[in-house]
């Protein structure tokens, strides 16, 4: 059975994409630690990051680094947080989010999907896309 991320990648579920290539996609988390929280996900459905091929792992991290720079710039943050947790969805994903302090690395503080403002989520995605120079589907402009 496909993971929720595979369904998002295949267009079966909606998402706010900020990046896409043949190996990796990036889209906003629906339960963000802060607005601008992005999930960087391999297209290939692989549960554990330790099982990814070196090629996919390299591309995943290159995209995570670029997204990290973008969220820092877009949200005027001092750092970009990077977390691999891996228990909520059995599909490798890296959490990237704008942050200014260690206390923001706390998933218990995440906003519930129904508590996020759709306009603020759309704005966050557009800010990141503007820095990455990608369109609404995550493709380069």
TrEMBL record:
Q: Listed GO molecular functions?
A: hydrolase activity
Domain (HIT): residue spans on this chain: 4-107
One GO-annotated biological process of the protein? nucleotide metabolic process
The yes or no answer to whether the keyword Hydrolase is present is: yes
Q: Which residues form the active site?
A: 93
Swiss-Prot/TrEMBL keywords: Hydrolase
Entry annotated with the keyword Plastid:
no
Motif Histidine triad motif mapped to chain:
91-95
Q: What is this protein called?
A: HIT-like protein
């Amino acid at each position: 059975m496909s993971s929720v991320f595979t369904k998002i990648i295949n267009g079966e579920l909606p998402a706010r994409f900020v990046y896409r290539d043949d190996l990796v996609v990036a889209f906003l988390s629906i339960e963000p630690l802060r607005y601008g929280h992005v999930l960087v996900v391999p297209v290939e459905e692989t549960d554990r990051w330790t099982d990814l091929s070196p090629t996919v792992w390299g591309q995943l991290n290159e995209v995570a680094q670029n997204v990290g720079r973008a969220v820092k710039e877009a949200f005027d943050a001092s750092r970009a947080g990077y977390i691999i947790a891996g228990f909520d969805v059995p599909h490798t994903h890296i959490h990237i989010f704008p942050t200014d302090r260690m206390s923001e690395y706390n998933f218990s503080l995440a906003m519930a999907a129904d508590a996020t403002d759709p306009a603020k989520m759309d704005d966050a995605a557009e800010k990141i896309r503007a820095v990455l120079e990608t369109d609404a589907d995550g493709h380069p402009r």
